[in-house]
Amino acid sequence: xxxxxxxxxxxxxxxxxxxxxxxxxxxxxxxxxxxxxxxxxxxxxxxxxxxxxxxxxxxxxxxxxxxxxxxxxxxxxxxxxxxxxxxxxxxxxxxxxxxxxxxxxxxxxxxxxxxxxxxxxxxxxxxxxxxxxxxxxxxxxxxxxxxxxxxxxxxxxxxxxxxxxxxxxxxxxxxxxxxxxxxxxxxxxxxxxxxxxxxxxxxxxxxxxxxxxxxxxxxxxxxxxxxxxxxxxxxxxxxxxxxxxxxxxxxxxxxxxxxxxxxxxxxxxxxxxxxxxxxxxxxxxxxxxxxxxxxxxxxxxxxxxxxxxxxxxxxx
Length: 316
Hints:
Shape: globular
Low-confidence stretches: 1-61
Number of helices: 5
Largest sheet: 7 strands, antiparallel
Mean pLDDT: 85
Radius of gyration: 29 Å
Number of strands: 16
């Protein structure tokens, strides 16, 4: 377990010639100065542009990041990288479920649960679904469980709105892969935190997200605010994210940030990477604003309370 980067000209004896030479020298000196001044000006412009570019790059980075837990270029396999944190008291306000309610809390990252090829298949699934509509703001949501799909500034139910046409968009194999990946993520969480996976239940919202740099149009588009999942969604006990695109090549910004008392720690998305954590205030977090490109991910959420369980999605 890991706990916590110029040339002068001589005159002649003739007064007239000397005057002409002096005049010529003066002109040449003036011309040379103008040339050097132009060169200096150009140099200053280049340096200024360089400084401004550097400043913009630095300013575009999150200056409050004190540690990168896992970089995009790293491959965490076969075992997850685990960071233990003390559990908050949030769970005391809810009914406790032995074998599931967090006793050990923390955060973990792994690249061995889902392959990059499977992530590409899921990303194409998301693209086909989101192509049916999409948000006017920077965030589009597709929830295969409830059928919720961003459309403009609202949501529609894809199963009711598109009816039988939905079978031309998704296949049974799409849903089989989705269910299989969900099961693997659930097993990884259970093993890491010492849980009985049969006592964990999928809960809502569990959804695909597509985020770009388009200006927010509604509150749903403002994904960058710090929040606690257990506070926002009382049913959450464990939260996971499966990334479907790569930080630095598919998009910039969009890193996941844990906000701790002694500094902020980030996870850089990588297609196929799974990041998961206990959902209480011990894992206050946010997502950086995406500055260019498109970030794809799936949020997969689990509860210990069977009353809030949802089933895997299936084609109607």
